[in-house]
Amino acid sequence: MNNDLVRFSVAMPEDLLMDFDAFAARRGVAKNRSEVIRDLVRDALNEEAVAFPGVKVVGTLTVTFDHHTPGLQEKLDDFQHDFFENIISTMHVHLDQHRCLEVIVLKGDSYDIRDIADSIIGTKGVTNGKLVLTTVE
Questions:
Q1: How far apart are CA 64 and CA 60, in angstroms?
Q2: Does domain 56-135 bear CATH number 3.30.70.1150?
Q3: Which of 68, 75, 111, 129 could bridge across to 121 with cysteines, CB 3.0–4.6 Å?
Q4: Which residues pair with 104 in a beta bridge?
Q5: Are 76 and 122 in contact (CB under 8 A)?
Q6: Residue 133 in contact with residue 59, Cβ under 8 Å?
């Protein structure tokens, strides 16, 4: 594949362009319009790629939970043992006296990883969760 840059033009309303420029500025001084557009296109293509079953992915599942929920920590540990081939690592953080955050790093088939994440997020005592995936290829 050729990595030469190709120029093209984009027409958009001025107010949208002003909002886009402000967005680009928030992303850092090294980010110009072209680089921000490239970032957005790569993000969109990645989101589409990870949506298909059979795609090899890696990602993180971030969950928060009340560690006083009876049996919850054991259930979370059981998930890690049951899916040891997909769960690479975890990080556990104590947020306060009752709440914890856990970041779980996963790899495998996109369908399987989404299923594991949905099961964990749906466990009683887990207050919220978010799965972020990217392709391995």
A1: 13
A2: yes
A3: 129
A4: 61, 90
A5: no
A6: yes
Region 29-48 average pLDDT: 88
Torsion of CA 107, 112, 114, 117, to 10 degrees: -80
Q: Identify which of 130, 131, 134 has the alpha carbon closest to the alpha carbon of residue 57.
A: 134
Q: Where are the domains of the chain?
A: 14-49, 56-135
Q: Which residues contact 29 (CB under 8 A, 6 or more apart)?
A: none
- Dihedral over Cα of 13, 18, 19, 24: its sign: positive
Burial of residue 131 (CB within 10 Å: 0-12, 13-18, 19+) is buried
Tokens of 32: 């110009």
In order, the DSSP letters of 83-137 are TTTTEEEEEEEE-SSSEEEEEEEEEEEHHHHHHHHHHHHTSTTEEEEEEEEEE--
Cβ atoms 86, 113 nearer than 8 A: yes
* Cα 30 to Cα 25: distance, rounded to the nearest angstrom: 9
Task: Tally the residues of the chain.
Answer: 137
Q: What is the pLDDT of residues 60-93, one digit of tens each?
A: 999 999 989 999 999 999 999 999 999 999 999 9
